[in-house]
Design brief:
heterotetramer; A: alpha/beta; 7-stranded mixed β-sheet; 5-stranded mixed β-sheet; 12 helices; 14 strands; globular; B: alpha/beta; 6-stranded parallel β-sheet; two-stranded antiparallel ribbon; 8 strands; binds thiamine diphosphate; binds magnesium ion
Chain lengths: 326, 360, 326, 360
């Protein structure tokens, strides 16, 4: 069984999806000959030719809007936005069109498209290249929002996203694109788009995160285990629709919840998770719900970014606070 | 200093406001049969429009955007499109939608605040009207690209207003269409106004047709109140696109004789003196005069046509008014192919709270 | 003391701000001769002339971006987006530029601009004309997000927004533009941009809302009072920065929290409020935190919209559930 | 059919690659003093660029976008701008920023990942570089409108790449500039590539200069490797704008001799054979040849100039490297004029967690 990085997994899933369904086409800025700035689409132009893999002009609104037209016409467009910092020009198309075309036409027209974008900080990228604004998309009815945190998940989730009959925003944590390799078969098996993943089990506290922050979250969990604190670690790989059951079941056992994400705290997606538990799971709670997040300031440039993003120490401290506080 | 590029924009008109030909009509359109059909479609569109306004006034239709005075644009475009071409219309192109086979009651349903109005049964692949100005232009590029990739000889036709030409979305779509020579035709229904903003305050460009030059393809201007000119020039553009030669932009010069919508009052910002001369350029009158002079069109025929159209529209209005409402919970039923459990629960909750309120 | 509707209050505040500071200029689509589709800018062109009140081409990205340039140059631009459904084209400018220009340049350049837009449903408007997506803006560091729910507040908050040295998104609940008149003086007094407003006091439950939903919330509170259930009603007129203290103090007294908003539930701003209380206020909670919101589906067209928006009955039922559940 | 509008795009060049004049130089630029100064600025810019790449290679600078081969564009533009004009540059216009008086160490600081690099002390009203392609064009319209409203004879100069011309933002900004005759000059640094996308795949338009036609104003094309042509044509555009006659678009034809950035490898998508001929069109060499032939420029002077520039850049690099880091908490200090209490608490929390980690 071969080993793959998250980046390779994305490439593998794209290749597999294109092989199994010739309606799948791929476009964006520099995805063709360039193979993508991170090489996510490397080799695909060579394998599938310029009618299925092509570069667009530098125009994000167009990229999203063109994907809508292609999807309605029966293609399965997979459009890449080069960095999440440039995805905002697509929001009008995503919110007013892609997410609601099925609803607007009572199912007459549908929009099976995937909008891929690398997101998040930690790679010392230039200005505007390190944002995490997933919660903007999570608020939009009619969308699916998916964020893998491991190579195998990236492979399975991207396959399912491409096969899904509705629009999916697929965000790739670029900080861990090459972080770790994982062994899995390129067997074409998709992963469910509506299920959280239990990454670790333990009774004292529930840790919830997604994307690159899973890395620090798991490190913290390991360190806590060393201190005799055992944690459930839940990976919210599908933010929308959110699998609240898995989270509630865990909190029902642990009575404590710590949510970790890199995005700014206010109105970040951690708020939704906390709110859900504060309703349906309140009586299980033995301690305050703590969020360990990016701060409510602009993601700093390279030199200070590490101070912005949650690290294992901040996560550990939060869990310890929860444990202490009852 | 050397000249590296040069461009020209042309204007075309066949039928003058007085119904007299300015030059010989194109063969395809000279035949009275054809012109009578186009005439009938314009009359029908105007009847549809009058009824929509009446329905709104009597509180049975929501906010509605009138097409009064722009009938020739929609009918002319519709005449040169093939059934399997795809239309991406702006919200004011009722005449064109009717010509495409959307039923009048379906259009009323949409403006009556019911999503089913965009689930029309006729041209299945046509887009619903774009209420976001210019937002449909990128879709047109996508549809045209689909045709090109599948090697189909079909054309996407994207229609928008003069105001829409200021949106970057429209420029981005035209630019890629020109780059890839996509089979798409962009038509600007330049009715001289974008809500309360006149054409002159929308752009410094001498014509809207020249917007295409930035995108690397030809633009043309036509008398948009001359259904013959519209059909000819848009028809040539559609043929050009269908032949794989790439997009064109056609600017149709017409006029919004009505308020922007039924909740607007144009007299607050528009001078009556500006409107009057346009009434004298009525797109319907000129064809009647021409048919009367050249094809012996009689008052009886005129009367019969009006009756036919009004009857048809009355039936449509009745059908619209007789349409049973959508149950509230249907707001959830076309969100995803399959409703996620979390949202299904919200659907149940909604039904429950409606029941409770029924009770008390 | 004259009476004014919320719409008139907006007009009054604009006029006042323009009179007291000639750096204040107003633009957008149809705001000049047209006076705005709701007449919010009626008469201002006549009073201040075309160099201070003018129409722009139909281009939202431009409107926001041009405001940035004007603000940096020392003007106090107040830009109108005709309906919130068309505000998404401004997000790239708002997120990447307006909200962070001060930070990007370490204070060398600043961006004192106001982006106004009518928002929300309930007026039987056409498609895309009834959205409530305030939480998108609430997530963006460097912004202020303000939503008045009464004429007097609209007046004071808009004045403060225009005088504020940083970018403010000012959302106007169009459903109540003309709903009720309120008496207040045009005295130029601003309202604080970081304070929730206590609209009603009572000990059994805390009701939190903003914008047009305040109407149904206050109706529900009145009806509940009739049943002997007394409520605190808090108006979150400034979503960002959020005045958590007022909310926490109230919950500390009532032990119960019901949040009401018209926007879709998932990742709506109600989630942030619930999350804050589930952390700092958990031990005060005697019942689950309940959100009464728009549903996680597309805002329906006119005929069904009333079923989408929270009404007094749904709010009452939620409070009763809270009361019952301990 | 009548012609209602026609347009031409012109191309201008003065100095050939071999340093021989193609036509008489404009008086303002013929004077050796001036040309020597421009020559010096180009040499300095190239030294700045080489050092930046060296700093990156040795891990002391972040990702950096090289201007190699584009020196004439920035220097030519900078030469014709007045101090109180406002520049809105793209991220590759270091030569222009230097010419505007931004200190080299400040530019290094920015690319070194420190916000203070955009807090430069020189041209106080100039914008920081736009890392969002084309996002600064609407700002330029706003700045120019500010000048117009205040009746100041100042000009906004907005510089962006060939790729940026595909963005709707740029079109929307040009459209309003043309409409209101704003005092702004748009310059396209057409270096033939947008990352891995060649100019030919960006638009079907024959020239990028013609993008202005859609916006209703003139576009010009110049040899962007000819600093004289750039200075003359951009200079005329700036004067035109300053005189209240409205905007112009100038397309400068140049070439990105380097990779897109220091983390890019152009050899993956670009043929060396394409690059070589452009080296023979070097913007610096041609001026040296001209000065040698016409103004007795000597090898000694050349040597002295290189030494002067290198010394200046070495000092700047040292100053950059000696800059003390910003404390982490400063990430909060320029968010709002006054930090809201909620966020101030986060600032405290950050300091606390840093302290704790210092402890343990
Ligand atoms: C993107 C967007 N901005 C603003 C509006 C509000 N609006 C609706 S119609 C209209 C004017 C459109 O003018 P034009 O494109 O000429 O079409 P017309 O109304 O003349 O048919 C405006 C500003 C909108 N629907 N979409
Ligand atoms: C809106 C936006 N989309 C994508 C990017 C990523 N990106 C950075 S530079 C670049 C190419 C820009 O090409 P061009 O405008 O020609 O400028 P050049 O790099 O040649 O100086 C791209 C795609 C970006 N920075 N901003
Ligand atoms: Mg119009
Ligand atoms: Mg370039």
């Amino acid at each position: 069984m071969a080993e793959h990085s998250l980046l390779e997994a994305v490439n593998l899933a794209l290749k597999r999806a294109m092989r199994e369904d010739d309606r799948v086409i791929l476009f964006g800025e520099d995805v063709g000959v360039g193979g993508g700035v991170f090489r996510a689409t490397q080799g695909l132009l060579q394998s599938f030719g310029p009618t299925r893999v092509f570069d667009t002009p530098l125009a994000e609104t167009l990229i999203a809007g063109m994907a809508v037209g292609l999807a309605v016409q029966g293609f399965r467009p997979v459009a890449e936005i080069q960095f999440m910092g440039f995805i905002y020009s697509t929001l009008d198309q995503v919110i007013n069109h892609a997410s609601r075309l099925r609803n607007r036409t009572r199912g007459r027209l549908t929009c099976p498209m995937v909008l891929r974008a690398p997101y998040g900080g930690g790679i010392h990228a230039p200005e505007h290249h390190s944002e995490s604004t997933e919660s903007l998309f999570a608020h939009i009815p009619g969308l699916r929002v998916v964020i893998p945190s491991s190579p195998k998940m990236a492979y399975g989730l991207l396959l399912s996203a491409i096969r899904d009959p509705d629009p999916v925003v697929f965000l790739e944590p670029k900080r861990i694109y090459r972080a770790a390799k994982e062994a899995f078969d390129d067997d074409g098996e998709g992963a469910p788009l509506d299920r959280c993943l239990m990454r670790r089990e333990g009774g004292d506290c529930t840790l919830v995160s997604w994307g690159a922050s899973m890395k620090e979250t798991l490190v913290a969990a390991e360190e806590l285990a060393g201190q005799g604190i055992s944690t459930d670690v839940i990976d919210v790989c599908t933010l929308k629709p959110l699998d609240t059951k898995t989270i509630l079941d865990s909190v029902a056992r642990t009575g404590r919840l710590v949510i970790v994400h890199e995005a700014a705290r206010t109105a970040g997606f951690g708020a939704e998770i906390a709110a859900g538990v504060a309703d349906a799971g309140l009586y299980h709670l033995r301690a305050p719900i703590v969020r360990v997040t990016g701060y409510d300031t602009v993601m700093p440039l390279a030199r200070l970014e590490r101070h912005y993003m949650p690290d294992a120490a901040r996560i550990r401290a939060a869990v310890e606070r929860c444990i202490a506080s009852d | 200093m050397s000249t590296v590029a040069s461009f020209e924009i042309h204007h075309t008109a066949y039928l003058g406001p007085d119904g007299k030909p300015l030059m010989a009509l194109p063969n395809a359109l000279a035949d009275p049969q054809t012109l009578r059909a186009l005439y009938r479609d314009m009359v029908l569109a105007r009847a549809f429009d009058a009824k929509a306004i009446a329905l709104h006034r009597s509180g049975r239709l929501g906010t509605y955007a009138s097409l009064l005075g722009q009938e020739a644009v929609g009918v002319g475009i519709g005449h040169v499109m093939q059934t399997d071409d795809v239309l991406l219309p702006s919200f004011r192109e009722h005449a064109l939608q009717l010509k495409r086979g959307v039923r009048p009651e379906e259009i009323y349903l949409y403006w009556g605040g019911d999503e089913r109005g965009s689930a029309f049964s006729g041209p299945k692949e046509d887009f619903p009207v774009s209420a976001t100005v210019g937002g449909h232009a990128p879709h047109a590029a996508g549809v045209a690209l689909a045709f090109k990739l599948r090697d189909e000889r079909r054309v996407a036709v994207c229609v928008f207003g003069d105001g829409a030409t200021s949106k970057g979305d429209v420029y981005e779509a035209m630019n890629v269409a020109g780059l890839w020579k996509l089979p798409v035709v962009f038509v600007v229904t330049n009715n001289q106004w974008a809500l309360s903003t006149p054409r002159a305050e929308q752009t410094g460009a001498a014509t809207l047709a020249q917007k295409s030059i930035a995108a690397g393809f030809e633009g043309e201007q036509v008398d948009g109140n001359d259904v013959v000119a519209v059909a000819k020039v848009v028809g040539d553009a559609v043929a050009h696109a269908r032949a794989g030669k790439g997009p064109r932009l056609v600017e149709c010069l017409t006029y919004r004789l009505s308020d922007h919508t039924t909740v607007d009052d144009a007299s607050r910002y528009r001078d009556e003196a500006e409107v009057k001369p346009w009434w004298e350029k009525d797109p319907i009158v000129r064809v009647r005069l021409y048919l009367t002079a050249t094809a012996g069109w009689t008052d009886e025929q005129e009367k019969a046509l009006l009756e036919e159209c009004n009857a048809l529209i009355e039936q449509a209005a009745d059908a619209y008014l007789a349409t049973p409402p959508q149950p509230p919970e249907t707001m959830f039923d076309h969100l995803y192919a399959e409703l996620p459990v979390e949202i299904a629960a919200q659907r149940e909750a909604m039904l429950a709270s409606i029941r409770n309120q029924g009770d008390g």
